[in-house]
Amino acid sequence: MIAADQVATKVADFAVVDPPPRSQTLHVPKGYRVSKEQFLVEVENIVRQHFGQPLSSQFLEKELSISERTLYRRLKQLIVLAPKKIIDSLCMEYARSLFLTLSIKFSCVTQALGCSDDAVFRHVFKFQVGMCPNQYR
Questions:
Q1: Fewest C-beta in 10 Å: which of 92, 113, 115, 134?
Q2: What Cα–Cα distance (Å) separates residue 65 from each residue in 10, 62, 69?
Q3: Which tens digit of pLDDT belongs to each residue from 59-91?
């Protein structure tokens, strides 16, 4: 009986091993960039806070209080993307989440993103995602 208690204790020790702590990045919604670079976090926050408005690189320049050249240089250095590509990618991720979570019309999604031309939205969505919005839904 004494050996059984020792074996049970050893088995329990192996069975109740605490896993290594996980990073909180697992809980970040898909599409959100996880970056330690403060500049990228600021750019993403500005874009996400202003969905529904026409977004452009000029808008980012004003919000960040930097020049066009500085904006392009910093973004190219950090993630090799131009400002318009970053804006498009964040908008398309938001559109994807709207298509998956809500059953709303295509025009409502484009309105929520501030896109005035449905054809342009379809083109960008297809380019970013690889399929038309209706196919994706």
A1: 134
A2: 62, 5, 12
A3: 999 999 999 999 999 988 888 888 888 888 888
Domains of the chain: 34-136 (1.10.10.60)
For residue 64, the Cα-to-chain-centroid distance in whole angstroms is: 20
Whole-prediction pTM value?
A: 0.66
Query: Which tokens in the block code for residue 31?
Result: 């599409």
Residue 38 CB neighbour total at 10 angstroms = 8
Q: Are 84 and 92 in contact (CB under 8 A)?
A: no
What contacts 86, CB < 8 A, 6 or more positions away? 43, 44, 47, 75, 79
Q: Is the pLDDT of residue 23 over 60?
A: no
